[in-house]
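hiii so um. not sure if this is the right channel but i have a protein structure encoded as tokens and i wanna go backwards to a sequence. like what aa goes where. can anyone help
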């Protein structure tokens, strides 16, 4: 805390002479640095809200520490020495060498790129690349991320340049008094130099403040002739570089606590005389955990390995592949970045690119590929709430990005839910809410007590299972799971039209009976089952469920619409004509092409939302001022084009203007743009 405070004070003093940076396409509340898995999740806070663990400095890389998504500082320092003078390009070391002027920041779906100017003599381009390769299981399985630093002279002269980058033991545990061990090494053919560090006492399956407590961290670079390294206390190691431009090539034999003379793992590269030709230096950061998930599967609790362990014999092999793959990975990243940007422009406009390209790596960064190539699973952590595993109503807002990038991944996400419940590890007739109270323990709820959202999750499972099967023409998946899908449909037939007093996915908003939006999800779920029955040759069920769903949707329009209101709209709950809410569950009808709900309902909502639009969006419902980005986007996706644009431009404004320091939140005040605090 102390060093952070000093650093921030210094940063604000230096800011008097800062040249302002540009931010393209926007200034996110937190800038993704290394964001690849639930545990490889480093960010640069940018907002100004002190309540959010900040304040950030506005989106500048030097002068402020990066943090884990949950706010803890992750030591990560970058220095550069030009003609004997040292400058800071990343982090907030104490003492603090002159903070560089950041002139530009830009993000795409996989990259965050900062441009720094060194006294008008040298330019630096620092690119954090977290690959997203949804159709390439091998690459997607690797929980590693790149930092590429390109340096060149801008004044036509030659300059003597040395580059420095370190990370500290803070990455290894959420407990700063935990003892860490380390070693320095080079790969067998001498091409890559690496620091490896890890908790001395490995706590398998454990987390502290959401950081993981087992596995090995790697920090690596090319093992060139001009590379030096050092392990030691933060001040010793950084001091050695600022004094001499090189490190001592020494180890530190005193394994100790993270907060005891902070163990720091450093590299320095002597670039020699730098001219106008750009020189690049590549670093890799990542976490190797051979065991990924504890899973209560078909035959009881088993340890599920990280999928990469099937592709690489050792951790070092995985590291070596990743690091030497940079040219290919960068090309694949550009293809992905361009696809997301051009599809977003085609589907919306430049504002839509602001959202999609910021969300893509964050969404995949909540997941981890596990299992084996024959039986792969995608596990998902409920990040920034309670850490549940495989939460069905968190998969639901997430699943469109899989439908867009690779629907097969949706199957790998749903499979563990089917396996656990079909094996009888869940005693209730309705769908489970999640597969475990805290990641990475997917140990289920064999006592039947989870955070029950029965109507919500039955509807979600039916809709998502059909969405996957339609995209992949996988009818056998529907046959395989017909019994349990049919069982969940029975629940919906009994409960969907007149929903009991219960919570929805928006649990923080409170329980309520007769929720209009929850009812329509259940009814759409019944119609989805009719299609499933049709596709699997169950004609009687298909006809029966279709007739029930159509009957219900007719009744729902009488119960859930305030026809006399001006303009008319659906209510938060039946009969509460003065209320409204985002009718986001209508999305399933369009997604699955059911044609169950009349177009008049879509038109009515499209005309209504602009009348209750606030500065940054439409409130979730009339009980609160806050809203949710995921549900606004579901609503926008099925609205008239003017209403769609209105939602998207307000959300883009939220991203650019929110004082929040958190990684793109889904929950914020529609009027002020602050991230919502729940109590
Ligand atoms: C940063 O920019 C200011 C204003 O242009 C300038 O005075 C200062 O020397 C620059 N600092 C560095 C390290 O380039
Ligand atoms: C070192 O090994 C890696 C991984 O096997 C390989 O990609 C690379 O080409 C090798 N380099 C040399 C110089 O042999
Ligand atoms: C997971 O379960 C193990 C016991 O099997 C426990 O020690 C650990 O603390 C749990 N992890 C979390 C994050 O709750
Ligand atoms: C560094 O020191 C530790 C602790 O004494 C030792 O285990 C390790 O082998 C040393 N590593 C190197 C590369 O010398
Ligand atoms: C290594 O450093 C020396 C001394 O600064 C320099 O002359 C040489 O160009 C550097 N080599 C490379 C490959 O950067
Ligand atoms: C569970 O056990 C059964 C019977 O031994 C076996 O056929 C099946 O493959 C096992 N399933 C898994 C997922 O291990
Ligand atoms: C239709 O489904 C409901 C709910 O499962 C069931 O009670 C009813 O008997 C079914 N009717 C026919 C004709 O199959
Ligand atoms: C729910 O709506 C139904 C139909 O309008 C009504 O009969 C019932 O009383 C409502 N339940 C509650 C708790 O308001
Ligand atoms: C499925 O629907 C199609 C088109 O409505 C119909 O022709 C077919 O008979 C149905 N099949 C079953 C098994 O219900
Ligand atoms: C709500 O509006 C509907 C139609 O718009 C009307 O039939 C109903 O009586 C109203 N309910 C109340 C409580 O005012
Ligand atoms: C949509 O917006 C455009 C531009 O503001 C306007 O001309 C048009 O009338 C709007 N369309 C509808 C259906 O509101």
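sure thing!! here u go:
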């Amino acid at each position: 805390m102390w060093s952070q405070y000093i650093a921030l004070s210094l940063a604000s003093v230096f800011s008097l002479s800062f040249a302002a940076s540009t931010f393209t396409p926007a200034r996110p509340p937190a800038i993704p640095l290394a964001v690849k898995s639930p545990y490889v999740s480093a960010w640069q806070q940018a907002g100004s809200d002190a309540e959010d663990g900040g304040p950030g400095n506005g989106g500048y890389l030097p002068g402020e520490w990066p943090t884990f998504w949950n706010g803890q500082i992750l030591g990560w320092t970058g220095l550069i020495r030009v003609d004997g003078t040292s400058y800071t390009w990343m982090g907030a070391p104490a003492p603090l060498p002159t903070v560089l002027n950041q002139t530009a920041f830009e993000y795409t779906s996989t990259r965050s790129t900062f441009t720094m100017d060194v006294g008008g003599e040298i330019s630096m381009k620092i690119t954090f690349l977290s690959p997203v390769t949804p159709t390439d299981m091998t690459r997607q399985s690797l929980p590693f991320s790149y930092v590429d630093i390109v340096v060149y002279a801008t004044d036509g002269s030659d300059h003597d340049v040395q580059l420095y980058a370190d990370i500290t033991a803070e990455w290894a545990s959420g407990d700063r008094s935990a003892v860490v061990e380390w070693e320095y090494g080079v790969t067998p053919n001498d091409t890559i130099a690496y620091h490896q560090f890890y908790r001395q006492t490995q706590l398998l399956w454990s987390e502290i403040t959401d950081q993981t407590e087992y596995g090995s961290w790697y920090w690596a670079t090319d093992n060139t002739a001009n590379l030096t390294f050092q392990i030691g206390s933060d001040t010793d190691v950084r001091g050695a570089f600022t004094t001499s431009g090189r490190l001592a090539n020494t180890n530190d034999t005193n394994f100790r606590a993270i907060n005891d003379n902070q163990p720091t793992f450093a590299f320095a590269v002597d670039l020699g005389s730098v001219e106008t030709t750009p020189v690049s230096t590549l670093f890799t950061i990542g976490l190797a955990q051979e065991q990924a998930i504890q899973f209560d599967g078909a035959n009881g609790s088993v340890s599920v390995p990280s999928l990469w362990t099937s592709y690489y014999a050792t951790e070092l092999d995985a590291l070596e592949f990743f690091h030497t793959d940079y040219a290919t990975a960068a090309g694949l990243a550009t293809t992905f970045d361009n696809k997301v940007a051009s599809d977003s422009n085609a589907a919306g406009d430049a504002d839509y690119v602001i959202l999609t390209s910021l969300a893509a790596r964050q969404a995949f960064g909540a997941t981890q590929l596990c299992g084996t190539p024959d039986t792969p699973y995608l596990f998902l952590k409920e990040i920034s709430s309670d850490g549940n595993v495989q939460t069905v109503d968190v998969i639901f807002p997430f699943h469109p990005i899989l439908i867009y990038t690779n629907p097969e991944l949706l199957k790998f996400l749903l499979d563990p839910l089917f396996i656990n419940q079909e094996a009888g590890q869940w005693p209730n007739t309705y769908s489970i809410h999640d597969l475990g109270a805290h990641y990475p323990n997917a140990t289920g709820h064999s006592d039947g007590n989870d955070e029950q959202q029965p109507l919500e999750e039955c509807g979600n499972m039916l809709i998502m299972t059909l969405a996957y099967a339609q995209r992949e023409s996988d009818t056998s998946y529907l046959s395989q799971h017909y019994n349990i899908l049919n069982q969940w449909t029975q629940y919906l037939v009994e409960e969907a039209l007149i929903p009991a007093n219960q919570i929805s996915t928006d649990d923080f908003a409170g329980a309520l009976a007769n929720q209009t939006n929850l009812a329509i999800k259940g009814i759409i779920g019944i119609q989805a089952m009719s299609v499933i029955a049709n596709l699997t040759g169950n004609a009687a069920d298909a006809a029966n469920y279709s007739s029930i769903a159509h009957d219900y949707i007719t009744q729902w329009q009488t119960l859930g619409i305030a026809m006399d209101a001006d303009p008319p709209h659906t209510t938060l709950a039946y009969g509460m004509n003065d209320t409204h809410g985002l009718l986001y569950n209508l999305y399933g009808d369009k997604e699955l092409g059911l044609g169950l709900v009349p177009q008049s309902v879509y038109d009515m909502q499209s005309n209504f939302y602009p009348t209750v639009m606030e500065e940054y969006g439409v409130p979730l419902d009339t009980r609160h001022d806050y809203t949710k980005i995921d549900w606004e986007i579901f609503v926008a996706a099925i609205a008239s084009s003017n209403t769609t644009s209105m939602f998207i431009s307000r959300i883009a404004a939220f991203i650019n203007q929110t004082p929040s320091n958190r990684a793109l939140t889904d929950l914020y005040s529609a009027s002020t743009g602050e991230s919502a605090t729940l109590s």
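oh and DSSP finds 18 helices and 30 strands in the chain.
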